[in-house]
Each structure stands twice: as C-alpha cells, then as structure tokens.
Design brief:
4-stranded antiparallel β-sheet; Rossmann fold; alpha/beta; 8-stranded mixed β-sheet
C-alpha cells in the first residue's frame, strides 16, 4: 500500500530549536526535516500540518512547504484549498464574537487561572490573537481541570495537554517540566480534524501516517495506520505512550524533532507504508 498522506505536528516534531525547520533539538543546522518533506513530494504523498498555533502561523508554514491543507488551534479549524471548516461543535463564531471571546465571556479561563494560580498562567506571548483556543502553560492534572470545568457549567470545554515547554519560559515553581495547555471546545481535537481531512480526500487509514510529540497528538493515532512519536517526546514525557488510543500502532523514532520526522517518512516509504 502506497503512502498518500503524512500528518505532522510542528513545534517539537517537524521543527527544531526556535521553531526552525533547519535546526535540530540542540540548535545545530540540519536538512533532514526538509529532506523528509522532499521524500514525501517525490513519493506523491501530501503533507498536512496540524498544530496548536494560530491560523495565520500555520497557513504561512503550509505555504512555505507548498501545501494547501492545514489544521490549526489544536484541531478547531481545518483549511482545505482555502475553505475553512470549524470543528467546534455548538460553539461557532458569530459576527459579534469569536469562539475565543465566547469562552472568555463564559468565565472558563478565569476559573482555571483562579483555581490554579500557582500552577497555571497564560502562555505569553503566543496566547494572543486567537480565534478559538485559550493558551496556558504550567503543570496541572487535565482530568481534575475538566472536572472543575464541568462542575461550573462548562461541559462543552476541555483542557488539552499539547506537550512540554522549556522551564525557562515560566517563573512558576513547578515539580516537573511545564506543559502547554489549550482550553478548547470539547468537540474539537487534532484527531477529529485529521479524520475530516482524510474523509474529504478519500484516504484510508493504511495510506496515512502521523508524527507528533504530545499527548494530544497521540489522539491522531486512532485514525491513521501508523503513528510516530519523535524521540524527544518520550524523553520529556516518559509516560506519554500510556495515553495512546487502544489498538493504535504507535512507534518511537530514534531521532528527535525534524530528524525523527525524516526517519518516520523514510521508514514508512521503505516498508511500503
């Protein structure tokens, strides 16, 4: 079976230090991420970026690598040939308010910041100019946070762990590495957005692979034939594999970041998927 599509996360996966395609995990120059993209192009496999980043950021990255479909704000939005699909359930943007503004007006972000004042803060400066998600950093129990949200009437929302960030990015005194968290509509996920793209393109699971580095990324494994965690994901979150969907084929690359992406692509092409 030929490889028809590669879904990949950006930060910590395809991209290296500083969010660069041409830097590895240590900041050294590398072409392997780009060579992985070239291998996809030569094989006729589409590359679809999925990310917690804002729409404008992911759009520019997709344009730079010559792709017309991309997923942004943790699966809240899917753009396909210039058409946007909002995968946020009953919470939809209106002429008066974005979904981000609706969530803010409901009080959910303030509830989390108040209850986790010593463990959670806005992930500045990337928390601004968002259409859907509220972005935080810190270290909290997502299940407990979701229970707190539900207890206060926010059943339509969930807090998503989108991977670790550098300890230097926060002054919070935490007992582990800080994580990036997105507060999003419960209906949205990277996995659902990937499934919608596959349906639109007519791709079968066995024709698709995905690459990622976070617990939320692992949700994509339910829909593709093969999912690769880059090595740095396990190094920074040793328990991450326990969050894989039951029955999913999840593998860990030997290399980190973009070099791990290259490894996943080349291995899949060599093995026929």
């Amino acid at each position: 079976m030929s490889l028809r599509c590669v879904y990949t996360d950006l930060d910590g996966s395809l991209l290296g230090q500083g969010g660069s395609l041409f830097r590895d995990a240590e900041g050294e120059f590398t072409l392997l991420g780009a060579r992985g993209l070239e291998a996809c192009h030569r094989a006729g496999a589409e590359v679809v970026l999925y990310s917690g980043r804002r729409r404008a950021q992911v759009m520019e990255d997709a344009r730079l690598i010559g792709q017309t479909a991309y997923i942004y704000e943790v699966g809240c939005g899917l753009t396909l040939e210039g058409e946007d699909l909002y995968l946020t359930g009953d919470l939809q943007p209106t002429p008066q308010q974005t979904v981000h503004e609706q969530i803010d007006a409901a009080g959910a972000p303030g509830l989390l910041l108040e209850n986790y004042a010593d463990r959670l803060e806005h992930h500045m400066p990337w928390h601004g100019d968002r259409e859907f998600s509220h972005l935080f950093r810190g270290l909290v129990d997502e299940a407990a946070a979701d229970a707190l949200l539900s207890d206060h009437g926010h059943e339509q929302l969930r807090l998503v762990d989108n991977g670790t960030v550098f300890r230097s990015e926060t002054e919070l005194e935490l007992d582990g590495l800080p994580h990036a968290y997105h507060l999003i509509p419960r209906a949205a996920s990277k996995g659902r957005a990937v499934a919608e793209h596959m349906r639109a393109r007519g791709y079968r699971p066995e024709e698709c692979i995905a690459v990622g580095d976070s617990r939320e990324d692992l949700g994509v494994a339910e829909f593709v034939g093969r999912f690769f965690l880059v090595a740095n994901a396990v190094e920074r979150d040793p328990e991450i594999r326990t969050h894989a969907p039951a029955g999913a084929r999840v593998e860990v690359t030997e290399a980190r970041n973009g070099e791990g992406f290259y490894e996943a692509v080349v291995r899949s092409l060599a093995e026929g998927r």
